[in-house]
Amino acid sequence: MIDAALCCILSASAAAQSAIPDTATYESWLREAYAAAQRRDRIGLEEAADRLMAATAVRMPDGTIVSVNNSWLQEALLSPTPDFPLITARLGALIDAAALPPSSAPADALERLDRLLAAPPFDRLDRSGPETPQWLIDVFDWLARLLEMILRPVEAVPPTATTVVAWVIALIGVVLLLAVIVYLLINLRRGFVHDARLAAAGDDPMPTATEAFEQASALARDGDYRAAVRSLYLSALLWLDEQDLLCYDRALTNREYLERARSNPALLARLTPVIETFDQVWYGHLPIDASAFAAYRQQIEALRRELGARRI
User: Fold this and answer.
1) Which of 32, 63, 117, 225 has the fewest CB atoms within 10 Å, i.e. the most exposed one?
2) Rounded to whole angstroms, how far apart are CA atoms 310 and 304?
3) H or E stretch including 190?
4) Where are the beta strands (DSSP E) in the chain?
5) Cis bond leading into 121, ω under 30°?
6) What is the C-alpha separation between 68 and 30, in angstroms, rounded?
7) pLDDT of residue 232
């Protein structure tokens, strides 16, 4: 009896371990959800999200079990109109993070991630609805007090011939008040339209490859080598786009750029170390100094020099 019970316990434990996905399976689930979010396919995203939300741990290549929590995705899909760009960006960041070597993550990586997700724009997923701005509440309170001040003298006037005059004055005041309200609403609507147009146009104008390269040099002179590496990497992607070698798209992850470069072996060979170095510096917080930045700059220049020569 004891042996049979022990066998049942061992078999149940083995079944539980087999239910834990490995890193390759988990990454494939992330990519499936990412692709559905990109094309705004809610049904496809919900199907892919079921597996991610059910997974509570992932088995690393060395056999280590790492816990995961994708409850944020469930909360995002509870909304009648999910924020697909935000979900796409967050899934893309998870895909990039999964591709990093474990040793590149700092000891406080989880604390940094919690602080990042608690700040805009990711904190929008935790809100049940938009809050009414305090300034708008104050405006309505002021209007209510003003209307009360206009009508109070009319109520105090006894029912005589002067009542008509008082009511005329009160009506004029109400008309003026309504004109002020209409004026405020028109200007408020113009402000919303202006903000919407700015959001549709993007956060910042896209620089050229040369501008991004010069910005990287300026950041390096100021000693901000981490930001300089990001600008150098952006200049490389923009240069490849300008040369019609690789289409630049903000929505793509770094791994997806490599997937698109597989049809060009020379491009893939030069772009792979550029992306790997950027991932380690930007996502892995790998320390970088002047000499390391100079080496990365040589990588970018070699990419432009070799691929540019092949097109001549």
Assistant:
1) 63
2) 10
3) helix 162-201
4) 57-59, 65-67
5) yes
6) 12
7) 92
| pLDDT per residue as tens digits for the range 69-103 | 888 888 888 888 888 888 888 888 888 877 666 55
Residue 113 identity (one-letter amino acid): L
Question: With b meaning 16 or more CB within 10 Å and e meaning fewer, what string describes 215-234?
Answer: bbeebbeeeebebbbbbbbb
Tokens 């390269």 -> residue? 213
Q: How far apart are CA 147 and CA 160, in angstroms?
A: 23
Query: CA-CA distance, 87 to 84, in Å (whole number)?
Result: 5
Quote the CA–CA distance of 257 and 89 in Å, as a whole number: 15
Q: Give every CB contact of residue 123 below 8 A, 6+ residues apart in sequence.
A: 117
Q: Which of 312, 242, 311, 228 is nearest to 277 (CA)?
A: 228
Residue among 270, 278, 265, 272 nearest 302 (CA): 270
CA pair distance 308, 300, nearest whole angstrom: 12
Q: How far apart are CA 126 and CA 74, in angstroms?
A: 11
Residue type, 248: Y
pLDDT at res. 131: 57
Q: What's the rounded Cα separation, in Å, for the pair 49 and 57?
A: 15
- Encoded tokens for 220: 């390096």
Give the pLDDT of residue 171.
Answer: 73
Among 142, 56, 100, 136, CA closest to 253: 100
* Mean pLDDT along residues 128-136: 58
Amino acid making up residue 130: P
